[in-house]
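Practice set, problem 2.
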Amino acid sequence: MSIDIRQEAVKQGTVEQRIVYESGNEMAAYAAHQINYHIMGYFPISPSTEVAQFLDLMKANGQHDIVLIPADGEHGSAGVCYGASAAGGRVFNATSANGYLYMLEQMPVQSGTRFPMVLNLVCRSVSGPLDIHGDHSDLYFALNTGWPIVLCRDPQAVYDMNIIALKLAEDPEVRLPVIVASDGYFTSHQKRRVMTFTHREDVQKFVGEHPPEGFQHVLDRDNPITVGPYMNEPDYINNCYQQSMAMYRAEEVFERIQQEYAELTGREYPILELYRMEDADVAVFLLNSSAEIIKDVVDQLRGRGIKAGAISPNIIRPFPAKRIAEALKHVKAVTVGDRADSYGGHGGNMVMEVRAALQQYGNSSTLVISRIYGLGGKDFYAEDGLALFQFAIDAMNKGYVEKPFDYHGATPGDPTKAPKRVLEPMKYEDLKTGLITVTPNEETGKVNVRIPPLRSLTKKPKRIAPGHGACPGCGIFSGLELFFKGIEGDIVALFHTGCAMVVTTGYPYSAHKATYIHNLFQNGAATLSGVVEMFHERKRRGELDQYGLKDDFTFVMITGDGGMDIGMGPAIGAALRNHKMIILEYDNEGYMNTGAQLSYSTPMGHRTSTSNVGKFQGGKVFHHKDTAQIMAATNIPYVFTGSEASPQDLVRKGAKAQWYAQNVGLVYGKILITCPLNWLSDDKDGSDIIDHAVNSCFFPLYEVERGVTTITYNPEEKGKRVPVADWLKMMGKTRHLNKPEYAETLREFEAEIERRWNVLKAKHDNPYL
């Protein structure tokens, strides 16, 4: 993190400050490291991921003591944070969009039991289809969770509000967890001039001692407490009433705290920021980053003689209704811009609350216009601000609102530009070659597979078209296509969110030649289970006869980029139900689609953006998950590992997987694939790296068929085993492990590889293991 570069000493307010030039995510991390929280439970999701990355880099360099806990998903990260806050420490987290919704169930639990913490919500589209850019649809889901919400229009506010938020959360009049909301990419990634406290001690003095007086927690053995009891009426409504009163008190407490902060720093954050509203006839109401742009528009209109003004709150929970009503009492018309829609509600959440505030305080004269704008990261320019003002000006001049609710910036569909099919569907006859035969062996209970020479299979059409956007040297598609060579006939494929999904489906194009489905990162296995069961039921009822189906589909779920971390629960559920489908994991050893953060499949000691290498940390600190063995423990009929470095083995296993998935039940397979970009390796070395991973016994090739383990390639018997260190030195992410200072980590990693390999050999030798 470059936070200590390009800084200038500044004296403003009563505390020593300095200037840095950093982004919103960097400033959230910087504030957290100055506070020196106890715990951060996190899970990577764009655009909030960088917050954990920056903190991990500072951790590797010994700049803070925060314990960073990588969870298996956002729901898990919220649980980590709740437990840590219940245990009496200071807790921090950051998330976005679908990740926030995944943890949503936990949010009212934490506020309802009154345990403080700070969560940075780096706002992003909650979407289907997938969009990773900024709007406020996740923020609006937060409105009813019982968390006070403060807003940040620029990186300076991100820094300041993160410090203010903790003091607000822990205030005895509040005692609630607080959300700090900033705009994804607009604020999170854009660098700006930011003033910070020079000395950490001044930050810690401002937020106060911990734990605050009277703070109850679960680690006080002399004062045992019960957290989250079962509660009937009237106790539950009374609890909610107390929480509600604390929320409303948060408005006054925030005002007091921000005034204290202003005395220290010279920076004010009034509950309602008003720009040239003293005599305004027309106004625009906006949140966060757009509220800065609209100020220039106000100045332009004032230069033309139009009395324009802008309103933007710095806190929206509690909603400053009385202050807004007061600010608008002489305004003739106001346009409220919502960066998210409340579908069917005739406007977004902010316009509804502004209208309610006006009605509550007796203002029936101000005309209110609702416009939805900027969804999915659509930029907001000065001309957009002028358009929002023009709606208000027109309403003022006419004396009524011609169109109370509409979208601004949407383009009506043009039927002449509808996407057209570029490639014709693949012919069944080309996919069903008859060159591969799979027959059950009644004596062994296994199946026998015969495959032709690989050159005979080259005429089978590829399931994924060329022209996708994968990085040079990416091993995903060569590995997938090799597996698909073993599949005869038609498939329906579901892809988890990840590199393979993102680079093949940029609308209006798709690289998928077979039917393709995408669902959320964690829920692919459950979704495909539903597809499988619907297929068999509709087939039973004769409803699919009209579609020319010549044989059953093979249903394949493709997962990677850590999808079997957040998606492990649904995958195990699907396995236990034994649906007739294949789960195929491409293992690139990280969350590569979000910037190479560690996943549970990242091996020990490997460098990622959340397991950095420095004087105080040598890469990932715990061992990788053996997903194949976990799935084998569910007693599904077939589990395998594969690699493009052993192509015939992988094709044979693909054919066997299809037979089991069509005739018996669920199959799980794992293929190791190269990621040159994030492994810091040469594009051309991918196959050699994978070959060394197999020959070092880090990634053994084997299968578990009806509970019996068979090693399908033994490098020791072939005389090809290589030292683990020889494999590690081929990648920039692991070369450090061959240095003396990381020798202990290397020894522990090598010992675990050897242990797992010996266990596997024992299982190979004994069918009852």
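Problem 2, part (b): a different protein.
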Amino acid sequence: MKQIKVLAQYYVDLLVKLGLVRFSLLLALALVALAVVVQIGVTLVLQGEVLDIDIVRSVFFGLLITPWAVYFLSVVVDQLEESRQRLSKLVTKLEVMRSRDMQLNKQLQDNISKLSQEIEEREKAEEARQEAIRDLENEVYQRENAQLELAEQSALLKSFLDASPDLIYHRNEKGQFSGCNRAMEELTNRTEKQLVGLTPRDVYSEEIARKITETDQQVFQNNVPLTYEQWLEYPDGRKAIFELRKVPFYSRDGRRLGLMGFGRDITERKQYQDAQEKASRDKTAFISTISHELRTPLNGIVGLSRMLLETKLDQEQSDYMRTIHVSAITLGHIFNDIIDMDKSDRRRLELMPKPLDFHDFVAEMENISALMASQKGLRFDLERLSELPECIEVDGTRLRQVLWNLISNATKFTKDGGVVMSVSSEVDDQQAHITFEVEDSGIGIPATELDKIFAMYYQVKDEDDNLHAVGTGIGLSVSRQLVQMMGGDITVSSEVGEGSTFTVTITVPLVELAVEEEALPVTPQISLNIFMVEDIELNITVAKALLESLGHEVTVAMRGDEALSMFDPEAYDLVLLDIQLPDMTGFDVAAKLRERFDYLPALVALTANVIKDKSEYLAKGMDDALSKPLSVKAITEVIQRLVLTCPLDEEEGEELVIENKNSQIVSDEMVNTLLDLEMLTSYVEIVGTKPVYDSIAMFEDKMPEYIAILDSNMTAKDQDGIKFEAHKIKGAAGSIGLKHIQQVAQKAQSPELPAWWENINDWVDEIKDGYHNDLKVLKDWLAQQE
């Protein structure tokens, strides 16, 4: 079988090598030869001889079968070749597959190796993971414990911060609150959640917010802490001063997050300082009181010594008595200086301008000054350099004190010669510009000392440091303050050894004697519908009771917006508008009403101020103005003039006459000073004592709140706040007839008064200390009316 395969392969290889044609010819020859050989052999065996025909027949047979043999062999060869090629391909594929198998086997070995390594690594990783899980569980446990501890510490810190009376807060770079403690919540009247995200302008008033924003910007711009003091206001209106410290706030990576703020209430410290100052003033007041008490016997010494000087005395007695007299006068000057020092120290210097006959005043100063100069053997001259006004409005006592002090100093420091006082005046538009000059021929003042002589306690000394004369060094300082309060000044020029000249200039109004106005008639009771806008409950109670007792119907609004929404011009005959309302002024309400309606009843302003000129009220849309508390006479006069279309004839009109049944009982001077008896008497006659008692109870309930807020404004030195609270106190006091408290509160609410700030402490103390006593007097008076 193997030989056949070899021959077959040899045959195929030969066919391929020779080609089909050559192979066919060679095969044909081989077949013919084979056929001839076979024929010859067979013929020889069978016949014993070979004929030519046998050879031809053999050749012919060989040629005949040759194509079929070639065809058959060709087909076989082709199939074998195809089989070979397929086999070759299969072998090639097998080799490729074997190569791949070897490669895959190698890869598999590599993968198995890697897998084994990976399994080892995974086992190690699993061990590491288990270790990490254990570490993580431990860390989680520690973190939970840390979070619990942190939560406890945070709660403790929050409790500590909330328990602190100091303000603690933090704001971000945008100026928005990010957190705060309870003290801050109480100050702003907002919870921490409500406060977060708000800016200072959303929380505080415009004035406070502006300063807070400015200081925040300073911290951000300079990147340094800042400490300052600022007044802040609680929701109830109480003010407190805080020492605020702001510091930049950073994250761990150094990025600035905003600022931290801390505020300590130092109001008590300020109040303690004020108390110390008050104690100092009280000490000075004690000295002043002693000085006043000593002046009584001193005046007797001065008067008796002057009388004795006019009797017959020998020279020695006259000298002794003159010494006593001059010493007593000098001692009196010292007492005056001490009194004024006390007032200056307590900022209580005040002026009480009144009409003054200027010609008589100048003549009086001439007589007194001449007597003072003659006691030292000096000459005194008065020169009138221009025409002087007849009557001016000035505090004559204070002006006399100033000139007396200057002339006294002039005679004190002059040994020879005399003193000359000149006076001149220029009148300009009902204002008199008056100049006094006091010139002496005394020792003079060194040029280096001229700018010091108006300082408190300063005294002129000579080169040996000896006082030129005895004195307190107070008079010139106080005198200058008084003249400056009069709108003028004191100046000095001097040469050593030649004398000094003091010049006083003041500007005062020209006045005439006031003419008393006739009493206005009072209307009878007429029922009206009155619309009243007032925000103080006590004033409402008093005014409403009075108006209703006169037969009127009263509708009340306590705010401007409420009044605008409620008002119907057809429903009311008269409108009473308080000027100071919580949300707007009475002038604003009047303006809006006149814009909204074509027809309006009479609009009358209500004010707690003393009305001297109604032109301002009329110019701002009012038809008239009344002072609070309302009086029967004032309100009925307004009704008569503005509401009634036809005035009453004198014969037909009825005059409302109110008699005081107990007028003899309330004749005590103190009661008349403390109480508005005219208002109270008419009020009690109309409505009885019960509404007054009710008003007193309401007053007693409100006053502690008013005073607490007033005290905080005083400590804050908030002029507007003081004015507003004093105005409320004045209105409340006037509503129940506490005239004295009303008058003091009127001063306290008037910053335009001279030396208002210097005197406000005393006025507030007078209100706080006096209203209880005044209420007792009022209750005693009411008891007598029952």
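Answer key, part (b): Residues 462-473, 515-523, 645-667 have pLDDT under 50 and may be disordered. Residues 675 and 738 are 5 Å apart (CA to CA).
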